[in-house]
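User: For my dataset I need records formatted as: sequence, then structure tokens, nothing else. Please produce one.
Assistant:
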Amino acid sequence: MRYAFTLTLALLLACSWQTAQAQLSVEDLPDLALTDFSYVSQERRDIFNDEALQRSTEPFQVFDNLYYVGIHWVAAYLLVTDEGLILIDSLHPPYIEDGVEHIRQLGFDPADIDYVLGTHGHFDHMAGHAYYQRNFGARVGLTAADWKRAQTDVGNTFDMEVADVDMVVQDGDTLTLGDQTLKFYITPGHTEGVLSMEFTVRDGEDEYRAVIFGGGGAQGNDFWKNQAVLGNIRRFQLLAAQSPPVRVRLTTHPAAPAGSGGLQQQLLDRGPSDPHPFVDDPSVFIEYLDQAEANVLEALQNR
């Protein structure tokens, strides 16, 4: 299994630096071992199966052009442009149609979703991709490695229907829809092809650089995965030093209902002159990356 991951990682890193010269396809990936979901404790399984809890989170507007349409356990975001909608992650059974209903509750038509993007190929983030592809004609984007990850895991772990392979997102790609451009980065670790991204969110006349960074978590005592994660972190440290600064980091798993940790309520209570609770000082993201780097270095030292 380590050889398979190492070969996959080599392919991904080659892709990272040579996107213009060579496009990585799903067929380029070796067969992957099944994901080990043993880390999902019975307590966590009970949480995902608690339908009342999962459905306790209502959809809400985060920024002028970004909405939370996820559930208690896992996030999904609707990014609104002047030419259509982009959905980031799509939930999992039995909550996929809850996400669709959340979109409708906010006044949008799921048929206007042009793209569904997957942060990675685990069931809880992309099990709804096929639903949007087949019912609404949305294009589905995922990295090559995580298309393969989803195809490997389907039917063997949790309940997941896999979308037909459509857009294979390469490292360094961009996607423009109307007034929005997203930038993509492959950040392997949690899976072989985690997709991190950045885009612009708006609050009145203010614009902020927002990121979803999925490549920073230490990976136990796995040397190769931790080396990949260390590379991800150091790359994002360089990106964070660019202008404009990263002021918004969006998570894919809420620390509290709706990913808010009380931020949703702060949005509801926010006065006309109050700062936006999701907008941080630039130092916050930099400090997060520094701590993530320290965690990975410790894991490497203790292996």
